[in-house]
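Problem: given the chain below (292 residues), write out its structure.
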Amino acid sequence: MSAESVQALLECSVTELTGRFVTQAQPLPQGLLEALEADPRQGAQALARKLRSRQEKNRAEGQRLRHLLKFETELWEQGLLKVAGVDEAGMAPLAGPVVAAAAILPRGYKLKGLDDSKKILDPDKREALAEALKRDVVAWAVGRAEVDEIDQINIYHAGLLAMRRAVEGLGLTPDYVLVDARTIPQCPSPQRGIIKGDSLSLSIAAASVLAKTTRDRLMAELDAQYPGYGLAAHKGYPTAQHVQAIQARGVLPIHRRSFGPVREALGLAQPSGPVPMQSELFAATPVPMAKR
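Solution.
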């Protein structure tokens, strides 16, 4: 932009400039930020500080997203373009199915704010990210393992079953699969389990958001079907409120009878032998990257 054009902008009020470049987030003309920093008006200098801070945050976010694509980038550069990230939600709750999701991102895809769903505390933000992913990704799918399956084969294997169903639901065979912490039995594609993968891979993070939001909506629906248990609030997790509701109101068909608090409420004996810690459920040995 010419010096004359920058000068014309500086003749605008700070309120107008704020509306255009902060509220409306219009592209910042070259030279305007420096001109605002040199402007004697306190409002102009405050606006410059705000715009400079936004630039730095955007730059940091871009670097974060590039870092989260390191596994995908290595595969893309080998010609493996259909890279699916897979993650699950709902291993620890006392009620409801375990839900997994698979997502294939376009090459080089970046979505501002996308991260491991556990780090995104605002439900509205998670929903907005999920909707953006559904619109943008090459393919996505969810898979479930139901309560009776969890009780029959245990939660660890049920989580793997949900993951396999999510991959099978994509409608195409991925060139490669990145999985949070584990590897999927009978997976049709080469795969790699990445410890804490939902924090290290953007594809797995995308799957975690899709799985979490899908399961949260399901638990809200179950709350309407079974009022009084607080399912929409705690999503089936073993909170004090949930355990008290089970003890006071009884066990529902959607409760996992293989889980301790539910067995206790039913007067069932606890299983013999040690119960795996949650960390043990996610143990996995990473599989080497495919080479071409």
